[in-house]
Amino acid sequence: MKFLVDAQLPRRFCNWLRENGHDALHTLDLESGNRTPDSEIMLIADRDGRVVVTKDDDFVQSYLLRNSPQRLMLIACGNIGNTELERLIIAALPSITAAFETAHYMEIGNNSLIIHE
Asked: Where along the chain do its domains lie?
């Protein structure tokens, strides 16, 4: 699976995904880095078949109103440390990957994975 990780999340998030066999880019890997506008992030993700991974509710609003980005994962666990975030993501990754075979939007929280079909 291919992911594009937004600026509010650590670059090492991509490492966690890569270590588990996925293709992952961070906004820091893009030409404008973390200053890349949301519209460009969505364009790149949609063009390249990537899931946007973000904490930014603006992407949710765009998904609901314009169906862009076409696939979205919202990290909705508040301000937690990177170690805890890694634990959550790694534990949920098999479910996330399976869900994205049919779903286009999901939210991961401290104790939940909500899949929107």
From this structure: 2-116
Contact partners, residue 101, CB within 8 Å, separation at least 6:
none
What residue spans of the chain are helical by DSSP H? 12-19, 38-48, 57-66, 82-99
Give phi and psi for 31, each to the nearest 5: -55, -45
**CA distances for 76 relative to 28, 40, 89, 102, 112, angstroms:** 21, 22, 12, 21, 9
Cα–Cα distance for residue pair 25/49, rounded to 1 Å: 12
Tens-digit pLDDT profile for residues 8-20: 999 999 999 999 9
pLDDT digits (tens, 9 = 90+) for 47-60: 999 999 999 999 99
- Say what the pTM is: 0.95
User: Could you give the count of Cα atoms lying within 13 Å of 5 in the half-sphere of its Cβ?
Assistant: 21
